[in-house]
Amino acid sequence: MFRLLMLILLSHAWSVRPHQPPQNIFILAGQSNMAGRGGVTNNTKTNTQVWDGIVPPQCQPNPSILRLSAKLKWVRAHEPLHADIDVNKTNGVGPGMPFSNAVLTKDPNFGVIGLVPCAIGGTNISEWKKGSFLYDQTVGRTQAALQGGGVIRALLWYQGESDTVTLEDAELYKQRSNKFFVDLRYDLQVPMLPIIRVALASGQGPYIDIVREAQLQNDLLNVRTVDARGLPLEPDVLHLTTPAQVRLGEMMADAFLQSMPSTIKTGPSYSDAPTKFSNFVSYSLMISLLLCSLCLILNFR
Ligand SMILES: *[C@@H]1O[C@H](CO)[C@@H](O)[C@H](O)[C@H]1NC(C)=O
Ligand SMILES: *[C@@H]1O[C@H](CO)[C@@H](O)[C@H](O)[C@H]1NC(C)=O
Ligand SMILES: *[C@@H]1O[C@H](CO)[C@@H](O)[C@H](O)[C@H]1NC(C)=O
């Protein structure tokens, strides 16, 4: 009887994998303010962009935050998150790390987070349309991230600065971004994928308000907008500073956690299912064992 119990306990211990891939996948996409330029300034002597390397506590690495590298490997996440993705630019602090740390602080049982950085500086919404290089990269990297059996929890999207230059692009922003969201949800096979997007704090052209208007009124379900207007900007008046990115990440975490109930309703993931099943089997066995011993004890009397 005791041996059987030990056997069950041991087999249960073996079924727990030592290095589990992350179960909570987040796509980070958009342009420079998603890639992260916090702390990046001009070095006037060398005339190059340099990152100051300052990483506030809210952006520090955490064993529960991984990132998918350009080579599609899970690695410990640290700033700058897009260093091997937005390779032609100098990357700094973005919203991804403070977002993840805030989610884990507010929901300690959330589980390991896997970030999938896909943002590239200077890109307009047309460069993200279905069939483009950036679109295919995003779908491909996300599918690679799901190989470990995780669930896509949300797309974090911060883009549109490049669409403020001409009136035509600004007016078409709403239609183009909605099409992008619908296509991406379809191709990732998550029709109600939560999208947390940012309303612009800045832009490269004069039509910022037209793009912001499109971002603030959501026609699609499960899309939430957090407003970055008023957050501090670097001297280039285009990029969020490091403290601004910390604040933005926390705002996005709040928006995501508020959207959680509808996320949970999508039911157990494929990866949860076997674990829950094996738990169920071992609990059932334990209860049968207890009942058996009870019967034996009663019989002996
Ligand atoms: C970086 O620049 C090279 C050369 O211009 C270009 O081929 C490549 O697509 C760029 N990559 C990104 C991620 O912008
Ligand atoms: C978007 O950016 C690409 C690359 O810079 C450019 O070729 C294209 O004309 C832009 N598209 C629109 C609609 O602005
Ligand atoms: C850095 O210098 C470039 C030109 O060398 C300029 O276009 C850019 O606005 C400058 N950025 C900042 C943050 O001053």
Automatic annotation (TrEMBL):
InterPro entries: Carb_Esterase_6, SASA, SGNH_hydro_sf. This is Sialate O-acetylesterase domain-containing protein. PANTHER family: ESTERASE, PUTATIVE (DUF303)-RELATED. The keyword Transferase does not apply. It comes from Dipteronia dyeriana. Residues 1-18 form the signal peptide. One of its GO terms (molecular function) is hydrolase activity. Keywords: Hydrolase, Membrane, Signal, Transmembrane, Transmembrane helix. Residues 23-258 form the Sialate O-acetylesterase domain. Pfam families: SASA. The chain crosses the membrane at residues 280-300.
